[in-house]
Specification:
This protein is α/β, with parallel strands linked by helices. The chain has a single domain, classed as Aromatic amino acid hydroxylase (Phenylalanine Hydroxylase, Orthogonal Bundle), CATH 1.10.800. The protein contains 13 helices and six strands. The chain has a four-stranded mixed sheet with strand order 4-3-6-5. Helix 2 packs parallel to helix 10 and helix 7 packs parallel to helix 12. The radius of gyration is 20 Å and the shape is globular.
Length: 312
């Protein structure tokens, strides 16, 4: 209900901005504990739209040169407007008929189990803020360009989509196994190791994965962290400093990573069918206890992530 001045209590003026770390709408949602939210499209500022335009325009030539063919088809399928921040409802109109996936707006960090469970249910938790125009080269946290232009085009591919759903199944297996451990300290120790292994797998495949190109002698990027980074997308393919190895599960789950520089080590899959088989193998290792003692190091596993796997 509007007040005497005609304003809706608690509403924000149109165009106030949805800039990462500077959005009153997101701050209020987080303060109220709201994780899943609506996209308040009229709050995007012209600066936000201009930042999206700049990001899209400079990435397009690099996508065409270094992006995996499935990603390029996904970009075409989504019909993204290169000049305006996308409406998630428009994205979903193109995405959902292809694979059943949909972009689901969130206010920020989603605990690990809830994130993986969303994938299992064909929902992709999507950040709706836009990085600041002065920081278009790097942002430590995701924004809507990373999520929609980096991740979501891959969700239009059926084989890749099924891999994400299968990965979400693994979270339920991890929760089931953890609840079967009677000693509380041992339960937390094992679960911490398993979550770390899952996070590393996601990082080195979904976020920073490479695939062989059609010739079988070169590489193309399919990982969203690569496809949303102007500098790293070229670096990951061209630089002699990058180590590129055929993916091996034992390497991936025991390899720590850091987020604040270009990745020095990347893994290569043959196809998305290959990637799906790796997720099957990951769950098999989980059931056999082979993920209960992975190597220490990044990423850290927070209390919220642990609690999310132990929910009743």
């Amino acid at each position: 209900m509007a007040n005497a001045t005609g304003e809706v209590p608690g509403a924000f003026p149109p165009g106030i901005g949805m800039t990462t770390t500077m959005s009153p709408f997101i701050e209020r949602a987080q303060a109220k504990g709201e994780v899943y939210i609506e996209q308040p499209y009229d709050l995007y500022s012209e600066e936000n739209h201009e930042t999206w335009r700049r990001l899209y325009a400079r990435m397009l030539p690099r996508w065409e040169k270094y992006g995996n063919e499935h990603f390029l088809q996904g970009i075409a399928n989504l019909c993204l407007n290169p000049d305006r921040v996308p409406r998630l409802e428009d994205v979903n109109q193109f995405l959902s008929p292809l694979t059943g996936f949909r972009a689901k707006a969130v206010s920020g960090y989603v605990p690990a189990f809830q994130f993986f469970d969303c994938l299992r249910n064909r929902d992709f938790p999507t950040t709706i803020t836009v990085r600041h125009g002065d920081k278009i080269d790097y942002l430590p946290e995701p924004d809507i360009f990373h999520d929609i232009a980096g991740h979501v085009p891959m969700h239009t591919d059926k084989a890749f989509a099924e891999t994400l759903v299968r990965f979400g199944d693994c979270a339920h297996t991890a929760a089931e196994l953890a609840k079967g451990v009677t000693d509380p300290e041992e339960r937390i120790r094992r679960l911490t190791s398993v979550i770390k292994a899952m996070a590393r797998f996601f990082w080195f495949t979904i976020e920073f994965g490479l695939m062989k190109d059609r010739s079988g002698t070169g590489y193309k990027a399919y990982g969203s962290g690569l496809l949303s980074s102007f500098g790293e997308l070229e670096h990951c393919i061209e630089s002699p400093e990058v180590q590129r190895y055929p993916v091996q599960l034992e390497w991936v789950v025991n390899q720590y990573f850091e987020i604040d520089h270009y990745q020095p080590l990347l893994f290569v899959v043959d196809s998305f069918d290959h990637l799906f088989s790796l997720v099957d193998e990951l769950e098999g290792w989980m059931r056999k206890g082979k993920l209960d003692n992975v190597s220490p190091g990044e990423p850290g596993v927070g209390e919220a992530d642990l609690r999310s796997f132990l929910h009743d």
